[in-house]
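Progress note, sequence design subtask.
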């Protein structure tokens, strides 16, 4: 299926690894030019070297309030237009609520929520002009609370609410805004959780991975490419009626409505 994305321009944050890298690769394979945003330039350059379309590397810390607007300005100047923003950057610290510090909370909200908000705000006029869209990568923790995921859960819930609010504005401005809630996806972050089980229970990595999957009542972990394909689909004008959609891709882990 031709997703009609060829010749369009996307910003992908957190593009140096994991889900973000898979998103950039998938969009480029569909013919999109991609602005790659993350903190580590060398890793971004390695990703850019593998992509078949024109790329713009933006090594920047999106927690800086001035950076998101600067990234959008650089992309608009380089490519002349902007059609898609994928807010994927940001991870949050897990742990005992009573032991998480204010700095942990500030960091979690600063990168995942406030950076996405500022990037969306700066990009909005360009997306309005192009009839473009935003895809937010939130997480299933925003729909199902967990005692050890208080920062991530509340950040993701805020991202989902922001998605719905911007979608409401987007009806008037011609900008589509949707979100994806990934479950446990095979990335370095998931590997860290597996190794934590290894340490706690004294089992090997394969056993720990199996125990973690079973504890979530899922058959397997997701692949970054599966999330990336969903992003490309939501970005496509072929599904132009999708507005304010919150798509769970978690292997059935979320069982609530």
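Output:
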């Amino acid at each position: 299926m031709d997703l009609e994305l060829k010749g369009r321009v996307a910003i992908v944050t957190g593009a140096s690894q994991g889900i973000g890298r898979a998103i950039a690769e998938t969009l480029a394979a569909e013919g999109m030019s991609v602005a790659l945003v993350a903190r580590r330039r060398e890793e971004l350059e390695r990703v850019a070297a593998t992509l078949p379309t024109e790329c713009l590397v933006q090594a920047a810390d999106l927690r800086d309030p001035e950076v998101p607007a600067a990234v959008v300005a650089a992309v608009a100047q380089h490519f002349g237009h902007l059609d898609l923003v994928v807010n994927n950057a940001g991870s949050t610290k897990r742990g005992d609520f009573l032991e998480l510090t204010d700095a942990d909370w500030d960091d979690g909200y600063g990168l995942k929520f406030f950076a996405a908000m500022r990037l969306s705000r700066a990009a909005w006029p360009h997306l309005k002009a192009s009839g473009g869209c935003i895809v937010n990568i939130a997480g299933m923790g925003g729909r199902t609370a967990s005692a050890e995921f208080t920062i991530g859960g509340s950040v993701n819930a805020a991202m989902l609410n922001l998605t719905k609010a911007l979608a409401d504005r987007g009806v008037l401005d011609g900008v589509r805004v949707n979100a994806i809630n990934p479950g446990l996806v095979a990335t370095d972050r998931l590997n860290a959780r597996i190794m934590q089980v290894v340490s706690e229970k004294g089992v090997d990595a394969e056993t720990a991975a199996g125990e973690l999957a079973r504890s979530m009542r899922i058959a397997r972990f997701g692949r970054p490419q599966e999330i990336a394909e969903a992003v490309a689909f939501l970005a496509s004008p072929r599904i132009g009626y999708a507005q304010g959609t919150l798509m769970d891709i978690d292997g059935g882990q979320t069982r609530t409505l």
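The beta strands are 9-13, 33-38, 55-59, 84-87, 133-137, 176-182, 246-249. Work on this subtask will continue into the next period as scheduled.
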